[in-house]
Structures are given as C-alpha cells and as structure tokens.
Amino acid sequence: MTTLPAHGLPTRHGVGPSCVGLPAGDWPTYTDFLVQRFPAITREVWLERMAAGLVVDEFGTAVTPGRPYRGHMRLYYYRALAIEPHIPFEAAVLFQDEHLVVADKPHFLPVTPSGRYLQETLLVRLKNQLGLDSLIPIHRIDRETAGLVLFSVKPAERDAYQALFRRHEVSKHYEAIAPWRAELQFPLMRRTRIVEGEPFFRQREAPGEPNSVTQVDVLQVIGEQARYALRPVTGKKHQLRVHMNALGIPIINDRIYPPVPITLDDDFTRPLQLLAKSIAFADPFSGQARQFDSRLSLLLA
Predict the structure, then answer these.
(1) How many CB atoms within 10 Å of residue 260?
(2) Is the per-residue pLDDT at 35 higher than 60?
(3) What are the φ and ψ backbone dihedral angles of 294, each rounded to 5 degrees?
(4) Element (H, E) at 119
(5) Is 90 exceeded by the pLDDT of residue 83?
(6) Rounded-to-integer distance, Cα 251 and Cα 273, Å
C-alpha cells in the first residue's frame, strides 16, 4: 500500500489519500474486498467513508457500497484511526525556503504515518502547521531517534536532494549516550553486512561483503557512560543501533538492540539516547553550502 495523490481526494487534515491495488478476484462488491483486505476496519466504517465520498476509484468516481467488484485498478481512500496515541512533544522548524524545510524532531514522534500513528507524525503536523500539502520527506530517522529531518517543499525536487544521499554527498553526524569501554580504541570504523533479522523489524550483522559503514569516536566520558560521535557513511536501517550493540556499547534506552520485552506503550521518561545532531551538503538548486544543527541535546549521566 502506498500513499499517492488521487483524483477527487485532496489532502485532508494533513493526510493524503492512500491507495490499494485491486487484484483479479470474485468478490461481489468493492466493499466485500475492502472488508477482507483490511480486517481491522469494519464494514460499517467503510460504509461511512463511502457515504462521505471518501473512497474513489483511479478515475475519481465515488465508490458506492453495492458497486460490483472489478480488478486490475486502484482505489483511493483516507486512512483513519479510532484511537491514536498522543506524542506530548513538539518539533521545531529550523529552516524554510521555497525548496526545503528542516525540522528538529523530538523522540517518539514518527516521521510519516504508519501503524498506530497518523496525525501524531512529523509530516502531518508540519503540513498542518505550515499549510504545505505537498511537503514530502527527503529522508527519515527512526521514531525513537530525535533530531534533524529534511523535507522537500516540491515533490518534483525531492529526487535532486535524495541523489545527494545516494552519492554520499551528505555529511551526517549523530550523538549517542552508551556505556564506556576503555579497551576499545577510538576513533574506529565499523564495516559490516547488515541484513533483516527476526522478527522482521530487527536487523542483524551477518557474514559477507560489508554494506554498512559507521565511524565512531568519543566526545566525553563520565563514569561508566560516554557521549559518542557517530558518522554513518551508509544509511542502512537501524545501522547506528546495530553497530553500537555489536561493539558491546548498546545505546542507552534502546529496547531493540539488545532486545527487551516489547510493550505497546512508550516510556516518555526513557528516550533512546540517539540524536541526529547535524547535516551538511551543497544545495542542488542554489549551490549554496548548507549546514543545519539540532538544538536538542542528550544528557550524559
């Protein structure tokens, strides 16, 4: 399922319409397909959405409850959540021009809608705050991570910024609080192969050609903890968290590396001690050197 613009369905409360592809099948109606495809959404909810004109086909024609099913096309609809956890922290906009928005994201706030989060996401909050329905993220950081996130104001310009990441022309610096191990020699470069682990949301290191590179250095040591400077050369999922855990210095309050029992509720008093601290690059449109620094900080015990 992907989020795409749809005929007849503009952005609504900062949320664009979602799209579902229709396979060949013998469902009597579109409603029957949707109820089976999305078991967490009741038939009554789909009927309410249709009555409000919030479900259309790829031609912009409203879908009615009894409309016969036809495969090999797309339907567009608004995703909605009956109950959504509130994230009691606010992002700050550090920079905005006609091309770019730079935000300072707090811990726990997702960048884009997924799972249990829709309105409580950085993208939707910024769309509503800035009145920019076209805003689209250039890159992402984990929900648990705080710090800098870049957005393209014009979707057509997004790839020009993303090309900088693909060509490794973006300098990214993170900070983390983790245990201190005096026997490790810093600075060091961690080069390993990261692959999907078990369960699906965890990553792990595996034998083979390295596909992830992180430079790790020490900024400050207090007692049994240290503030580390992390510079990811590559951008694999959970790369910094995986590498720090593999070094025997897991980031403080990381609930995935190493794994701990998963709970649905966040503990807002124990944020992951990882911060996207700074980012620098040459703007692909103006050629101007850009550098942005997070105003957030991590507290070293």
Answers:
(1) 10
(2) yes
(3) -65, 145
(4) none
(5) no
(6) 6
Burial (CB < 10 A; 0-12, 13-18, 19+), residue 190, is buried
The pLDDT score that the predictor gives to residue 114 is 86
30-37 and 43-51 are packed helices; what angle lies between their axes, rounded to 10 degrees?
A: 130
pLDDT at 3: 42
pLDDT tens by residue, 235-274? 999 999 999 999 999 999 999 999 877 666 789 999 999 9
Assess whether pLDDT exceeds 90 at residue 211. Answer: yes
Tokens 């070094």 belong to residue: 247
Q: Is the pLDDT of residue 292 over 80?
A: yes
Is the per-residue pLDDT at 49 higher than 60?
Answer: yes
Tokens matching residue 122: 């950085």
Exposure letters 9-30 (e unless 16+ CB within 10 A, then b): bebeebbbbbbbebeeeebeeb
Q: Nearest 5 degrees, angle CA 81-CA 82-CA 86?
A: 75
- Determine how many CB atoms are found less than 10 A away from the CB of residue 289: 9
Residue found under tokens 């099913």: 69
Alpha helices in 131-205, H assignment, sequence order: 158-166
Distance between CA atoms of residues 280 and 274, nearest Å: 18
Looking at the DSSP assignment, which residues form a beta bridge with residue 212?
192
Residue 29, beta-bridge partner list: 68
225, 226, 231, 237: CA torsion to nearest 10: 10
Find, among 227, 229, 231, 213, the residue nearest to 172 by Cα: 231
CB count, 10 Å around CB of 57? 19
Tell me if 238 sits within 8 A of 257, measured CB to CB. Answer: yes
Q: Which two tokens stand for residue 196?
A: 């999907």
User: Which two tokens mark 216?
Assistant: 């790790």
- Give the three-state DSSP class for 221: strand
Give the C-alpha distances (Å, rounded to integers) separating 192 from 196, 210, 228.
13, 4, 19
